[in-house]
Amino acid sequence: MPAVRARKRFGQHFLHDAGVIRRIVAAAAPQPGQAVLEIGPGRGAITRGLIEAGASLTVVEIDRDLAATLATEFGQHLNLITGDVLDLDLAALPQPIRVVGNLPYNISTPVLFHLFAQIDRIDTMLFMLQKEVADRLAAPHGNKTYGRLTVTAQLRCDVRSLFNVPPGAFAPPPAVVSSVVSLAPRADRPAQPIFDALDTVLVRAFGKRRKTLGNALADCLDGSDFETLGINPRLRPENLTPDDFLRCAIRFLEKEGCT
Question: Whole-structure pTM over 0.85, yes or no?
Answer without folding.
Answer: yes
